[in-house]
Amino acid sequence: MELSWLEDFLALAECGSFSRAAERRNMTQPAFSRRIKALEDWIGAGLVDRGTHRIALTAAGERFRPVADETIRRLQLGREAVRDVALASTSTLRFAATHALSLTYFPAWLRGLQVHGGLDIAVRLTADTMQACEKLMLQGQAQFLLCHHHPAAATALDPAQFLSLRLGVDVLLPVSAPANEGQGPLHALPGTPERPVPHLAYGDGSGMGRIVAATRALDGPPAHLAPGFASHAAMVLAAMARDRRGVAWLPLSLVEADLAAGTLVRAGDEAWDIPIEIRLHRPRARQAPAAEAFWSLAVG
Fold first, then answer.
1. Which of 26, 41, 70 marks a domain boundary?
2. What is the pTM of this model?
3. Most confident by average pLDDT, 208-222, 239-253, 279-293
4. Helices (H) and strands (E) in the chain — how many of each?
5. So what's the pLDDT on residue 270?
6. Do 269 and 194 belong to one domain?
């Protein structure tokens, strides 16, 4: 069995298509199909239901998927741990962070820990969508994940395999450009069936999109929203809101200066707000010495 077969299988499970998965893995579809078949032969069970229009995993495939994820993650962690032991004095801490927090929270937080803890070590940060950051963690390519969190929103990081630490609080609040200088919002909630509010929404893969969808479905006040624009990046939605395009639920940490300057205003009262946490995630398995030292410093 080859490790690349597991990566092929996970790409197929995510793409739902042999052709798209083969393209992602940079090979022809026939070659890709042969590797999936070789994996199934090695396991002794069919992993993929090929009888549907969109490829689906069999029950065996669904059972094997987290095993493949965990195997790749542990191998990556093991490789990095060995490298860190060999290069103990020059180890690099590998962070994944969602786009908004990589700009608004991460720099000052890291600087504070380095100054007060006397930690002098190289850091590599990857800023991406929540979905992509989770994948980096699952594959062992990042030691820590900095993200927003709400208990109603699902996460791919199983608490049995990952620890998390609450670092602070934030709030998602609906904002709009002002109607006129010093006046109320141009786009005000809740809207009406006849005149729904244009909604600047989060795209697929966004952690804040998960949070907004989950909380609005549970107990958010009723609203009449019309799809207007979607992006996985909160900074893009903020720019579109300033451009008078609609309402977006944005983290206060990102739009605080806009609210103070009046370039954005609340689109509704506090009943529309969504309290969230800022959390740091790490694998439960022991990591390299430098990463363990940093975690101890973060826990305080």
1. 70
2. 0.70
3. 239-253
4. 11, 11
5. 93
6. yes
